[in-house]
Amino acid sequence: MENTLGLEIIEVVEQAAIASSRWMGKGDKNTADQVAVEAMRERMNKIYMRGRIVIGEGERDEAPMLYIGEEVGICTQPDASSFCKLDELVEIDIAVDPCEGTNLVAYGQNGAMAVLAIAEKGGLFAAPDFYMKKLAAPAPARGKVDIRNSATENLKILAECLDRAIDELVVVVMKRDRHTDLIKEIRDAGARVQLISDGDVSAAISCAFAGTNIHALMGIGAAPEGVISAAAMRCLGGHFQGQLIYDPADVKTPESEKWTREGNIERLNSMGIMEPDRIYDADELASGKTLLFAACGITPGTLMEGVRFFSGGARTESLVISSQSKTARFVDTVHMFNEPKQLQLR
Ligand code: VTB
Predict the structure, then answer these.
(1) Class assignment of domain 131-285?
(2) What is the share, in percent, of the chain residues with pLDDT greater than 90?
(3) Residues facing 309 on adjacent strands
(4) What H or E segment, with its residue span, contains residue 232?
(5) Could you give the CA distance from residue 283 to residue 293 in angstroms, rounded to a whole number?
(6) In the predicted model, is pLDDT for residue 2 greater than 60?
(7) 101 in ligand 1 pocket by Cβ < 6 Å?
(8) Structure pTM?
(9) Is 77's C-beta closer than 6 angstroms to any atom of ligand 1?
């Protein structure tokens, strides 16, 4: 994979975040998402690469842009052989979420970001649009905590691995009715719960960074975002496991009322997933030899600042993680929309 890709994808997530942040607080989550999609796609299509979206905005018939299977990058254009060395280019798969946490943006709340993950072709699990039970934890607990355990058991293990008391642990859980029992169990075990309304990708990745005061993510979120989280966690050496949730009784959303357990199993089988109960580790969800992850804060978060506009420009903060260079870079960027003025940086 091209080394410059790691730099160019910063601009991809930055452009998506800037576009979306203009809709911050406007109560319109669909537009906040749509403008992020357009900006991400436009910048992506300027990169010298042969990319294919494996996790995106949905199937082609329901999403016009960044749909699953869409080819992106300069070298996917019909006449690309005249200006790209196609035989030398590694084909890559891309998982995107241009606006992770659309509600957070719409209502001006913390934790929204533009995010993507890249691997060589075949290196990312093409997760179906299902729910996923997730467990994320810091690197010292990798392979020691287990999604098959109860939350109580995992908290004991986590406390040992991190050499601290259980009541010093903070577990992020999404505020949903489906998590009522989980939240009670975590509190009864003595740990503290940080409830979030949306945005579990940021929460999962925060576990891998000491100092965030987030020690685990537990509960059920969306499966496609689980793959993006897994890509980052694999690079960072953190713990991530996911298990698809197909029984409507486990989620109980207005959408899930329309499903049946059997119907969902059939749907999964038709997608080639014959073991619906399988538990996936990070290196199965993101199996690529070379992985890249990039995120840019739309609203302020645990890891990154949100987009801040000033007269004639904006400032963003992004995170780019590369398995190849073994780096996690925080990138603070000043974007000058007009003629550069005197910049005041603090
Ligand atoms: C969202 C979102 C999360 O999962 O809530 C979603 O905020 C699914 O849960 O970050 P609901 O259908 O109950 O809202 C995520 O997108 C990602 O896992």
Answers:
(1) alpha beta
(2) 86
(3) 314
(4) helix 223-236
(5) 14
(6) no
(7) yes
(8) 0.95
(9) no
CATH of region 2-122+290-336? 3.30.540.10
What spacing in Å lies between the alpha carbon of 133 and ligand 1's midpoint? 11
Q: Is 206 helix (H, G, I), strand (E, B) or coil?
A: helix
pLDDT tens digits along 267-279: 999 999 999 999 9
The two tokens of residue 230 are 């897994």
How far is residue 204's CA from residue 222's CA, in Å, rounded to a whole number?
12
Strand, helix or coil at 176?
A: coil
**What's the chain's length in residues?**
346
State the number of CA atoms in the 13 A half-sphere of 336 facing the CB: 8
Phi-psi region of 12 (alpha: psi -120 to 50; beta: other; left: phi over 0): alpha
Ligand 1 pocket test: pick from 110, 134, 200, 205 the residue with the most ligand atoms within 8 Å of its Cβ.
200
> Closest residue (by CA) to atom 3 of ligand 1?
199
| Phi, psi dihedral angles at 113 (to 5 degrees) | -150, 160
**Which secondary-structure segment (H or E) carries 38?**
helix 29-44
CB of 43 within 6 A of ligand 1: the answer is no
Go through 198-230 and write b for each residue having 16 or more CB atoms within 10 A of its CB, e for each that does not.
Answer: bbbbbbbbbbbbeebebbbbbbbbbbbbbbbbb
CA 60 from centre of chain: 21
- How many angstroms does the Cα of residue 197 sit away from the middle of ligand 1? 9
Kindly list the domain boundaries of the chain, sorted by start residue: 2-122+290-336, 131-285
Eight-state DSSP code of residue 192: E
Q: How far apart are CA 217 and CA 196, in angstroms?
A: 11
| pLDDT given for residue 342 in this prediction | 73
Q: What are 335's two structure tokens?
A: 């974007």
